[in-house]
């Protein structure tokens, strides 16, 4: 796919799920700073800084430096043809799009105005990609805490994914601590509480990328987590029992129900309804089927599960939550293979 621009922008819409859903369905991106008004006449950095100061006169110099450039770049430096990365908050997906329109002031939209998202750009969404398809360095760059940042150095990786190719550096797992997003270098920080969220996301990315590239070994990870949860679990290596990777039950002898037949899928692709129905066909009376899929599930797959109480679907995000919840109970072998340390982040400054 040909690029019409060498710019790659990263936009974070924040915690408003309804606005994020509208952006995905209606084809736009949006940022805050509504109180500054229409950004069209604020067409220089000096004007943007002055407008920010007029609107928030009590803001510290550090916060002003961190903030005013973002709405200016959104309105006047972003151009039609530029590529957009939109990491969907609370999910394992990243949307890739292309800017198709000029800056718009959408104050007439009551919902956008009420929620402080009147600054918008029209976008054509090109592809939804699981986070684990990107390199660790790209994900770290996309994880800026700012609403708007740039990651131009990863544009070739994004174009490769749009073309259906696997980026050459996608096998990278470790996230270098020295890799810092451009916006962070410029001091464009946000509330310190968001540091916890960023650390959590990077931990999730690290684990998912590690497991995605272990293939068959991921089955052993699943077994280890179920054992940490208190189950007796056995790998079905060799025969795979027609697709069952792990058998788990509540007691050591396997007498106490329910017996669980578990499939573990470490690929990045979305699992559809046929795979869920196939697992259902392997269950006998009183048995439960668990499908762990790092790439997630299609809506049709979720619909099949919703109508069957014997099926449990665990996507990558949920499996990470289970891994972290029972991390202290894992066998030391697994804690050594995936070394993690609990940290504390202040929720507010003094």
Q: Could you tell me the strand content as a percent range?
A: 15-25%
Order of helices and strands: EHEHHHEEEHEHEHHHHEEEHEHEHH
User: Structural class per helix/strand content?
Assistant: alpha+beta
Largest sheet: 7 strands, mixed
- Under CATH at level 1, the class of the largest domain stands as Alpha Beta
Number of domains: 2
Spans of 5+ residues with little confidence (pLDDT < 50)? 175-190
Helix content: 25-40%
**Overall average residue pLDDT:** 85
CATH fold label of the largest domain: ph1033 like fold
Describe this structure in words.
With 350 residues, the chain is of the alpha+beta class. It has two domains: 183 residues, ph1033 like fold (Roll), CATH 3.10.590; 121 residues, Trna Endonuclease, Chain: A, domain 1 (3-Layer(aba) Sandwich), CATH 3.40.1350. 36% of the residues lie in helices and 18% in strands. The chain contains 14 helices and twelve strands. The strands form two sheets. Strands 1, 2, 3, 4, 5, 6 and 7 form a seven-stranded mixed β-sheet that branches. A five-stranded mixed β-sheet has the order 8-9-10-11-12, sandwiched between helices. Helix 12 links the parallel strand 11 and strand 12. It is elongated and about 75 Å long. The N and C termini lie far apart (50 Å). About 5% of the residues have low confidence.
């Amino acid at each position: 796919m040909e690029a019409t621009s060498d710019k790659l922008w990263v936009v974070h819409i924040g915690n408003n799920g309804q606005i994020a859903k509208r952006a995905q369905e209606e084809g736009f991106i949006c940022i805050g700073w509504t109180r500054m008004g229409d950004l069209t006449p604020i067409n220089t950095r000096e004007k943007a800084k002055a407008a920010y100061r007029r609107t928030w006169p009590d803001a510290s110099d550090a916060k002003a430096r961190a903030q005013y450039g973002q709405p200016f770049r959104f309105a006047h430096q972003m151009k039609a043809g530029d590529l957009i990365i939109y990491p969907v908050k609370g999910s394992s997906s990243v949307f890739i799009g292309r800017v198709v329109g000029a800056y718009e002031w959408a104050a007439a939209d009551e919902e956008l105005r009420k929620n402080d998202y009147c600054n918008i750009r029209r976008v054509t969404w090109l592809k939804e990609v699981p986070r684990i398809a990107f390199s660790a360095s790209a994900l770290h760059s996309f994880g800026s805490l700012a609403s708007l940042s740039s990651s131009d150095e990863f544009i070739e990786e994004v174009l490769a994914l749009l073309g259906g190719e696997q980026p050459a550096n996608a096998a990278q797992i470790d996230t270098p601590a020295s890799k810092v997003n451009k916006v962070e270098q410029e001091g464009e920080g946000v509330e310190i509480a968001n540091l916890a969220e960023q650390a959590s996301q990077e931990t999730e990315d690290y684990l998912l990328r590690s497991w995605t590239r272990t293939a068959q070994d991921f089955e052993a990870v699943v077994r280890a987590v179920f054992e940490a949860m208190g189950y007796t679990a056995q790998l079905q290596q060799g025969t795979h029992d027609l697709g069952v990777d792990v058998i788990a039950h509540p007691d050591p002898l396997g007498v106490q129900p329910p017996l669980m037949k578990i499939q573990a899928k470490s690929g990045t692709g979305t699992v559809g309804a046929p795979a869920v129905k196939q697992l259902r066909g392997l269950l006998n009376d009183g048995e439960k089927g668990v499908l762990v899929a790092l790439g997630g599930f299609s809506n049709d797959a979720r619909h099949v599960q919703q109508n069957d109480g014997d099926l449990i679907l665990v996507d990558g995000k949920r499996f990470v939550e289970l891994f972290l919840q029972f991390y202290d109970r894992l066998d030391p072998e697994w804690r050594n293979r995936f070394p993690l340390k609990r940290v504390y982040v202040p929720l507010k400054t003094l």
